[in-house]
Amino acid sequence: MASLTNVLAVVVLFMPLSCSLLPSAGAATAAELVTWKCDNGTYYAANTTYQSNVRTLLASLATNASRSSFPAGFATAVLGASPDTVWGLGLCRGDTSGADCGSCLALAPEVAFGRCQGVKDVTVFYDRCILRYSFRDFLTSPDNRQVQFRGISSDNVTSNAGWYDVLVVRLVSALSDWAAFNTTPRYAVGVMNSDQGFPASNKDVLHRIIGLVQCTPDQAPAECRRCLKTLIDEMPTVFNGTVGGRLLAVWCHLRFEVHEFYDDSPMLNLVAPQFMPPPPPASTDQQ
User: Fold this and answer.
1) 153 and which of 39, 92, 103, 244 could share a cystine (Cβ 3.0–4.6 Å)?
2) How far apart are CA 206 and CA 13, in angstroms?
3) Phi and psi at residue 22, to the nearest 5°
4) Any idea what the CATH number is for the domain that residue 169 is in?
């Protein structure tokens, strides 16, 4: 697989309130639509060969990803002859496989032929799966910046927010190492525990940060780690004491929350060091 290099300009999706705000039961298998990207400016007409190819491609991705044993929950496809060729990718969250994976990806036509009707390049993010199709060959030269979504919680840490941000990055970085170098699915979930806790704007005191990272499983370990690092490097400018958030893209993504949102047991269970406030400045008074 080609290196994740800079190919095209960034397309960033923003949402004023993250869909990560609301807790979801860990055992729930229903897929929740997070956001979507209709790459406007590229269109096809109804009842054309391209539309037929998209329909066939979407069905193929859902079927193949649900049946795939390795890599589980992942499929790519290319369908049709030029100028009606369609490239596609489907990826399910690491704890979602088999029928649940197929059911999630099978929802994509609702966006493809509804909100994005007639658009030739579409990406759909559900909480349990991601799907993209395009008239461009985005599979040969992966660029994780082509489609990005930033989801930010409306709740904030009200004390020691900078230390909270440090712990989030430490957790996500540790999970990124685990996903890239210790797993073949390129997926990891884990927890950072803090005895001290962090007061939040919703009046809660937060003692646990829960994180998830994932790459497409066809990436080599170092390639996956580089992909996640580009997202981690964005975190300080995106999340400033927010209690939860996510950076979603096609080739890798990350998420952190203070409630459980996955079905697995955590791969990592970390303990936060005690926060030590900086010493007061030395007195300049002269005796």
Assistant:
1) 244
2) 28
3) -90, 130
4) 3.30.430.20
